Amino acid sequence: IQRTFSIIKPDATKRNLTGAINAKIEAAGLRIIAQKRIHMTKAQAETFYGVHRERPFFGELCEFMVSEPVVVQVLEGENAIAKYRDVMGATDPAEAADGTIRKDFALSKGENSVHGSDAPETAAEEIAYFFSGLELV
Ligand code: ATP
Ligand code: MG
């Protein structure tokens, strides 16, 4: 059993898509074991996306992530990291497979509705950044 970290991004929370996205997560066999709505600070967004600091879209990405509240989640299941990335679909919704979250809901490569961890190490770091051990049951 594995855990991954997810964010339902501002474009999705703003359009009331949290429930529709959670339905796809649960239909894929992933369990939502922790979830809360937060409004990220600029500093939190910049730290969270620190690996992308040199990318041309970094400023725009951080502005977007603080533009509205987001829903942060911990998902648990067999192969949760890879499974959730399958459920999310490609970064660019134009390239995302049918039935994926990004295909159905994302607006663009930037406003793409969800984040999911890409490896076990980043999943552990990202979960610990937003949740305390007591919140994970
Ligand atoms: P995430 O890390 O959010 O799960 P990802 O792993 O599919 O998505 P990354 O390459 O890690 O994509 O990029 C992180 C995020 O930065 C993307 O989800 C998207 O919101 C934004 N992003 C990536 N590429 C671009 C781009 N060319 N223009 C604008 N925003 C982008
Ligand atoms: Mg990524």
UniProtKB/TrEMBL annotation:
<feature type="binding site">
    <location>
        <position position="9"/>
    </location>
    <ligand>
        <name>ATP</name>
    </ligand>
</feature>
<dbReference type="Pfam" id="PF00334">
    <property type="entry name" value="NDK"/>
</dbReference>
<comment type="function">
    <text>Major role in the synthesis of nucleoside triphosphates other than ATP. The ATP gamma phosphate is transferred to the NDP beta phosphate via a ping-pong mechanism, using a phosphorylated active-site intermediate.</text>
</comment>
<comment type="similarity">
    <text>Belongs to the NDK family.</text>
</comment>
<dbReference type="InterPro" id="IPR001564">
    <property type="entry name" value="Nucleoside_diP_kinase"/>
</dbReference>
<dbReference type="GO" id="GO:0005524">
    <property type="term" value="F:ATP binding"/>
</dbReference>
<dbReference type="InterPro" id="IPR023005">
    <property type="entry name" value="Nucleoside_diP_kinase_AS"/>
</dbReference>
<feature type="domain" description="Nucleoside diphosphate kinase-like">
    <location>
        <begin position="1"/>
        <end position="137"/>
    </location>
</feature>
<dbReference type="GO" id="GO:0004550">
    <property type="term" value="F:nucleoside diphosphate kinase activity"/>
</dbReference>
<comment type="subunit">
    <text>Homotetramer.</text>
</comment>
<keyword id="KW-0546">Nucleotide metabolism</keyword>
<keyword id="KW-0418">Kinase</keyword>
<keyword id="KW-0963">Cytoplasm</keyword>
<keyword id="KW-0808">Transferase</keyword>
<feature type="binding site">
    <location>
        <position position="102"/>
    </location>
    <ligand>
        <name>ATP</name>
    </ligand>
</feature>
<feature type="binding site">
    <location>
        <position position="85"/>
    </location>
    <ligand>
        <name>ATP</name>
    </ligand>
</feature>
<feature type="binding site">
    <location>
        <position position="112"/>
    </location>
    <ligand>
        <name>ATP</name>
    </ligand>
</feature>
<dbReference type="GO" id="GO:0046872">
    <property type="term" value="F:metal ion binding"/>
</dbReference>
<feature type="binding site">
    <location>
        <position position="57"/>
    </location>
    <ligand>
        <name>ATP</name>
    </ligand>
</feature>
<protein>
    <recommendedName>
        <fullName>Nucleoside diphosphate kinase</fullName>
        <ecNumber>2.7.4.6</ecNumber>
    </recommendedName>
</protein>
<dbReference type="InterPro" id="IPR034907">
    <property type="entry name" value="NDK-like_dom"/>
</dbReference>
<dbReference type="GO" id="GO:0006183">
    <property type="term" value="P:GTP biosynthetic process"/>
</dbReference>
<feature type="binding site">
    <location>
        <position position="91"/>
    </location>
    <ligand>
        <name>ATP</name>
    </ligand>
</feature>
<dbReference type="GO" id="GO:0006241">
    <property type="term" value="P:CTP biosynthetic process"/>
</dbReference>
<keyword id="KW-0479">Metal-binding</keyword>
<dbReference type="InterPro" id="IPR036850">
    <property type="entry name" value="NDK-like_dom_sf"/>
</dbReference>
<keyword id="KW-0067">ATP-binding</keyword>
<feature type="active site" description="Pros-phosphohistidine intermediate">
    <location>
        <position position="115"/>
    </location>
</feature>
<keyword id="KW-0597">Phosphoprotein</keyword>
<dbReference type="GO" id="GO:0005737">
    <property type="term" value="C:cytoplasm"/>
</dbReference>
<keyword id="KW-0460">Magnesium</keyword>
<keyword id="KW-0547">Nucleotide-binding</keyword>
<dbReference type="GO" id="GO:0006228">
    <property type="term" value="P:UTP biosynthetic process"/>
</dbReference>
